[in-house]
Amino acid sequence: MDFTVIDVETANPNLASICQVGIAVFRGGKLHQTWSSLVNPGDYFHPINTSIHGIDESMVASAPSWAQVYPQILPFVTHQIVASHMPFDRTATLRACQSAGLAHFDCAWLDTARVARRTWSECSQSGYGLKNLAAKLGISFEHHDALEDARAAGEILVHAMTHTGSTAADWCSLANQPLANVLCSFNQLVINPNGELAGNVLVFTGALSIPRREAAELAASGGCEIGSGVTKHTTLLVVGDQDIGRLAGKDRSSKHVKAEELIAKGQNIRILGESDFQVLLGFESLGR
Question: Which structural domains are found in the chain, ordered by start?
Fold first, then answer.
């Protein structure tokens, strides 16, 4: 029942742009210790990201860099079971470490969303996002604060362990148990429900480094349903890397504009670049 949870917030769609990190340590199934810090990402803040988590440049002006908080994080995660809700936080810490020339954490990673998908199949329609699961389980938290999100993800894992009788160590294996494949209605691609991004509805926009069909096949292999346009069901918008620099300008695609409009209305859509998307799925070198 012992594990650590990590969650981060980012300044912009680049996953390396961590501006806040939160850690919740659970011992014996109980919250034991917490730690959090603002982080100066050394990068710009996109208004959409700030509107989600409330952090801006002025708040991190005197905050430590990722390289400076890294030594403080290591004691919490080294040789531990480290959980995060979906793979974004894990990948963000990897990208931040790569940018700073640091080794990524030596730990056993556990995705609490994968645990939830295998514990509460009845949530398949409403989704396995942190907010939906917390509401189902009666967990109160302030969403998009890194420490609060880490605590909520940890409590979800505790609920799952209690519900199933399996420990966090057990779940490191059980979370990889296969689920049945499904077919994407949009393009007839077979979706892998065991993929890193299972449960997400993904839309591509902008110029990609690989053919769009190949990108869609990668997304499906990673568990994503592929959408042709941004809708109320969209959870991920992947933008071509060369278009990421246009985020603050007027050259954004109609899909990008629509996604930002829905985010402003409260929909949980994550916008990220193609290279970060490939790293999430373990295909960083594709098209390069």
Answer: 3-176 (3.30.420.10), 201-281 (3.40.50.10190)
